[in-house]
């Protein structure tokens, strides 16, 4: 992992040391493109470096959340968040409520709303996470779709 990565720069700018735990957790998140549960992060970190403890992994996830490097989202379950990397301050998904697959998209069209919120609330908006929910075409046309339409 390059030390000039924007996430490493964010840690440095905030005054945090580049510990082995932080670098390893970041490497795991970047390898998964940030779509990963805390349990999966823990498992992969333990595989890479068994000396890094469970508490260090969870503290690092909390720190990365506070710094805006990652954001929790509830793609696959309402109980355990999936962490997503925040590239450029925003991230977008459409999630199928049947099969739980998620689809990413780039253009959210939120620029005008962001500017309006900044002006109205006198804030500097640093990012957002946008999720839509629905049923994908595979699930709409799958075996259950035929069963449901026979009523």
Structure characterization notes:
The structure is a single chain. The protein is an alpha+beta fold and 151 residues long. It folds into 2 domains: 87 residues, Arc Repressor Mutant, subunit A; 64 residues, Ferric-uptake regulator, C-terminal dimerisarion domain (Dna Ligase, domain 1). Helices cover 43% and strands 18% of the residues. A hairpin with a 5-residue loop joins β4 and β5. α2 crosses α3 and α3 packs across α4. The chain is flat and about 45 Å long. The N and C termini lie far apart (56 Å). The mean pLDDT is 81.
Describe how the helices and strands are arranged.
Blueprint lengths: L5 H8 L6 H12 L4 E2 H11 L5 H13 L3 E4 L8 E4 L4 E7 L5 E3 L6 H11 L6 E7 L2 H4 L2 H6 L3
Helix pairs in contact: 2-3, 3-4
Structure characteristics:
three-stranded antiparallel beta sheet, 6 strands, about 150 residues, 7 helices, three-stranded mixed beta sheet
Brief summary of the model shown:
The chain has helices at 6-13, 20-31, 38-48, 54-66, 111-121, 137-140, 143-148; strands at 36-37, 70-73, 82-85, 90-96, 102-104, 128-134. Strand 2 (70-73) and strand 3 form a beta hairpin.
């Amino acid at each position: 992992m390059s030390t000039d990565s924007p996430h490493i720069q964010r840690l440095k700018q905030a005054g945090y040391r580049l510990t082995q735990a932080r670098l390893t957790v970041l490497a795991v998140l970047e390898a998964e493109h940030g779509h990963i549960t805390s349990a999966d992060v823990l498992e992969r970190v333990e595989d890479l470096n068994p000396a890094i403890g469970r508490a260090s992994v969870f503290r690092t996830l909390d720190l990365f959340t506070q710094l805006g490097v990652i954001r929790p989202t509830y793609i696959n379950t309402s109980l355990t968040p999936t962490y997503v990397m925040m590239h450029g301050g925003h991230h977008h998904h459409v999630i199928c409520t049947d099969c739980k697959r998620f689809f990413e998209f780039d253009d959210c069209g939120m620029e005008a709303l962001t500017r309006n919120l900044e002006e109205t609330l006198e804030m500097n908006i640093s990012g957002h996470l946008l999720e839509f929910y629905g049923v994908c075409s595979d699930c709409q046309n799958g075996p259950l779709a035929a069963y449901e339409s026979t009523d």
